[in-house]
Amino acid sequence: xxxxxxxxxxxxxxxxxxxxxxxxxxxxxxxxxxxxxxxxxxxxxxxxxxxxxxxxxxxxxxxxxxxxxxxxxxxxxxxxxxxxxxxxxxxxxxx
Length: 95
What we know:
This protein is an all-beta fold. It is built from no helices and 9 strands. It has strands at 8-14, 17-31, 34-38, 45-49, 52-58, 63-68, 71-76, 78-83, 86-92. Strands 1, 2, 3, 4, 5, 6, 7, 8 and 9 form a 9-stranded mixed beta sheet that branches. It is globular, with a radius of gyration of 12 Å. The model has no long low-confidence stretch (mean pLDDT 90).
């Protein structure tokens, strides 16, 4: 289990809307070469994304899932995900 307190800032946006902006402990995204997980202190990275699900884990371990059509992911301390389009987003609580 991931430790609490290891959070970083994540922003998920499309050209017309910000879908999420807050503290998380993990984000899993569909990179062009497969899914990748970003945790706190991840090395700097810029990569393109393909169509697939983005899974965000908050500090309280609740999760948000978004389906994106592609985009760009940038890690530089904070993490920014600019999606071409977000098709759907849903929350679920992990208790």
